[in-house]
């Protein structure tokens, strides 16, 4: 039975949490396969309760699905325990959580280095959240990482930490003039986390293989989005993992042949947090409209998001790269009241038209959007539940997105609520 990948088609913040939660009651497992607590999902339940989830898969709000944090995630144990406690206090059952023993830990030296390096970069900074995600992934690749399973063996934990801090403390103290990390204090802190996290640590790969063998449905949830992918995004202004569909296999430990559907989520416009190229970015009243009406502030950081018109070049790239079978377009209601709604259909770079993403970073930085203007609509669409209930111009807008991306638009979000959707094609049979 199917493994379904759910991912972002832009630069993140597209509303994946809402879709994951929407599907959560109809799947058996929800798996987070990449990223750390630099990402965030906001989920609003039917009774108006708002949940900001950072490490926990969005399926945590499902009453029955098992929730898995896969080996591809980097985990800050303090943040995870705070999230577990916060959900428990609000009556959410977190006993269904399991965490891969191979997931890497974010340590104090990762957070310290992330913050100080970003400051030293000055105007060349990437725009990280300073939560240690990049340095944790760096140590993973350098084979110096500390994994969740290491919390269960104090001797191994100490040995690995001492080895890591030989180098990291030199950097912090001698290069950046910061206080060195104390080994004993860190060991004591993390062994405290171990005591509480031990019941959740498991061999999650086998759990997922067995679930697929039983014919159960596994939903794989990516953090961030396609254009922040380490290999396929706007490098170096990217995250430190692979949130694309291929990363789901690596980050959860399931075979590619198990994936039967790839659902991509895109806003009806475009946003981005942090530095990096953004061809359709707006600096006028339209940009302020998208910011304020769309409430474009980061779930994790609270930072204002940069806003711009829908970029069909990016959306088509994401669709082809990920093998997208279904596109979910969120926040269509934010465009209500605009007389014209442009869509970027191509780029102009040095007098040449590009219908696909240019090869080089330099070209993408200098891309000028070529727009096609569509007529807007004034009607309130938040109560629409069928395509026929949408204004004609809103339907034309969605149809044009479908044409330009080459992917069917299966669901249209018409409001922030869990039920505020127009379902054109069911996401699950």
TrEMBL record:
Its EC number is 6.3.4.4. CDD domains: AdSS. Its main location: cytoplasm. Pathway: Purine metabolism; AMP biosynthesis via de novo pathway; AMP from IMP: step 1/2. It is found in: Cytoplasm. The keyword Ligase applies. Mg(2+) binds at residues 13, 40. InterPro entries: Adenylosuccin_syn_GTP-bd, Adenylosuccin_syn_Lys_AS, Adenylosuccinate_synth_dom1, Adenylosuccinate_synth_dom2, Adenylosuccinate_synth_dom3, Adenylosuccinate_synthetase, P-loop_NTPase. Keywords: Cytoplasm, GTP-binding, Ligase, Magnesium, Metal-binding, Nucleotide-binding, Purine biosynthesis. GTP binds at residues 12-18, 40-42, 305, 331-333, 413-415. One of its GO terms (cellular component) is cytoplasm. It is an enzyme of class 6 (ligase). The active site is at 13 (proton acceptor), 41 (proton donor), 140. GO terms for molecular function: adenylosuccinate synthase activity; GTP binding; magnesium ion binding. Binds 1 Mg(2+) ion per subunit. It catalyses: IMP + L-aspartate + GTP = N(6)-(1,2-dicarboxyethyl)-AMP + GDP + phosphate + 2 H(+). Substrate binds at residues 299-305. Pfam families: Adenylsucc_synt. NCBIfam families: PRK01117.1 (NF002223), purA (TIGR00184). Homodimer. Plays an important role in the de novo pathway of purine nucleotide biosynthesis. Catalyzes the first committed step in the biosynthesis of AMP from IMP. Belongs to the adenylosuccinate synthetase family. HAMAP family: Adenylosucc_synth. This is Adenylosuccinate synthetase. It comes from Micromonospora inositola. The lineage of its organism: Bacteria, Bacillati, Actinomycetota, Actinomycetes, Micromonosporales.
